[in-house]
Amino acid sequence: MAFQPPPQVILLPQTQQLKALTTIIRDKETQRADFIFYSDRIIRILVEEGLNHLPVVEKTVITPTGKEFHGIDFQGRICGVSIMRAGESMEQGLRDVCRSVRIGKILIQRDEETAMPKLYYAKFPPDIATRYCLLLDPMLATGGSAIKAIETLIDYGVAEERILFLNLISCPEGIRAVVEKFPAMKIVTAEIDAGLDEKLYINPGLGDFGCRYFGTD
Ligand code: URA
User: Fold this and answer.
1) Terminal CA-to-CA distance of the chain, rounded, Å?
2) For a surface tag, which of 139, 145, 157, 199 has the fewest beta carbons within 10 Å of its beta carbon?
3) Domain regions of the chain by residue span
4) Best residue for ligand 1 mutational test, from 193, 209, 214 (most atoms within 8 Å of Cβ)
5) How far is ligand 1, taken at its centre, from the CA of residue 159, in Å?
6) What is the per-residue pLDDT across 187-205, written as a single tens digit (0 to 9) for each?
7) How many percent of the chain have pLDDT more than 90?
8) Is residue 208 within 6 Å of ligand 1 at its C-beta?
9) Structural fold of domain 9-214
């Protein structure tokens, strides 16, 4: 049976445009310049959709015709938090939409001894606990680093329901792991793939996102 994402998951509208963009970045023949360009386009759509899930309050303004317009305003302040290194690819997309947004960083790697994700570095805006956090990582595979990153944000005082996790490609294993641990958090994802292979890559996926985006091995 096809995977039914839980309600915490916001899947981008599966438009032909999005499908065409993800087809390009999934193609192993796609060269780096195109990989960056088309990933950036998807990141932009993800960020725009993410902003739709932040709370708003009513706001009335006076237009130049002297009339009232009953609109809305975002309720709180936001910040980005990128999971290094691949998540750094999403920072510019966030900056393009949210002028002078503060961006924290978090580095998590596998501990050689325990094989568990280990926190190596975290740097956040000092008032992060009062902000809504857009957590950035393009691939949600096992969910191991995401869970460690979310635990770290919670340790710094960020409420689970104030975290919005943005990623390009996810899979049922990662979604289940994250949602089970943090049911109050939302995930915004562009596509949900079939699952993980034996090397824990997402299938069909797109390979190693960080290496393709940053041009490394
Ligand atoms: N990270 C990646 O870059 N690709 C995967 O398939 C899984 C994790």
Assistant:
1) 36
2) 199
3) 9-214
4) 209
5) 27
6) 999 999 999 999 999 999 9
7) 95
8) yes
9) Rossmann fold (3.40.50)
